[in-house]
């Protein structure tokens, strides 16, 4: 059973959350969605985690500021740094104890990296596993939109200019009226060979809910982020990196550099898949997430046993 909740961040922004799973679960999973999307991106994975029965984790899925049902963001707060701080607040207030598994899609994965960068002590103490999906640690370095280099650079310049205009257009959503006309372009940009109608409709509804300030405001921060050094400091943490080989926004080169920095991470490239893996390839994403949760639960159980096992000195006494 899912319950809805809200928290207000330190800067006064309201974040909307859905929480499910047993309160006494061994592990908590926190799900972070992508740019211009919302927490509904994770609907298949939430169902899969609930299907783990008595081993099911607590699951927290939240709408990023300026997205979904969360409050609007001020333009100066439309940054990945602020999103990393938001994730820290969600974990402190909604999952104050126990191991945490973080899963992030696209900008959600970048949010996880920013949380690790800005709150390294908390991250090391709490996070027991990572699932990074269709994301990057190098901004727009590898993004070519599936186009030749010269055309990609031209498109990026136009996109960057347009994002600046949108960022200053406030919280209104006039683009909802033209989304049906944009459907073919969105289908090509976001999905691979196959695209279920339900996945396409949910993606368009999420995009329609995102205000212009959020669509444009986060662009500069997303394009500029560089966090490979942060990931290198997390080497050895249980982690899986997923990417589609038809991803035009965060192509396999992005995932390969993440896996190269995050020593020990498992990299999986899904043939024929695009950018929207949680909706496009829900079974593969759910399987990877369930595997990480199971490992985190086993590790937590072993740690508890080690803490309660009598030491040699106590036995000798």
TrEMBL record:
<feature type="domain" description="AB hydrolase-1">
    <location>
        <begin position="29"/>
        <end position="288"/>
    </location>
</feature>
<dbReference type="InterPro" id="IPR000639">
    <property type="entry name" value="Epox_hydrolase-like"/>
</dbReference>
<dbReference type="InterPro" id="IPR029058">
    <property type="entry name" value="AB_hydrolase_fold"/>
</dbReference>
<dbReference type="InterPro" id="IPR000073">
    <property type="entry name" value="AB_hydrolase_1"/>
</dbReference>
<dbReference type="Pfam" id="PF12697">
    <property type="entry name" value="Abhydrolase_6"/>
</dbReference>
<protein>
    <submittedName>
        <fullName>Pimeloyl-ACP methyl ester carboxylesterase</fullName>
    </submittedName>
</protein>
<dbReference type="GO" id="GO:0016787">
    <property type="term" value="F:hydrolase activity"/>
</dbReference>
<keyword id="KW-0378">Hydrolase</keyword>
<dbReference type="InterPro" id="IPR050266">
    <property type="entry name" value="AB_hydrolase_sf"/>
</dbReference>
<dbReference type="GO" id="GO:0016020">
    <property type="term" value="C:membrane"/>
</dbReference>
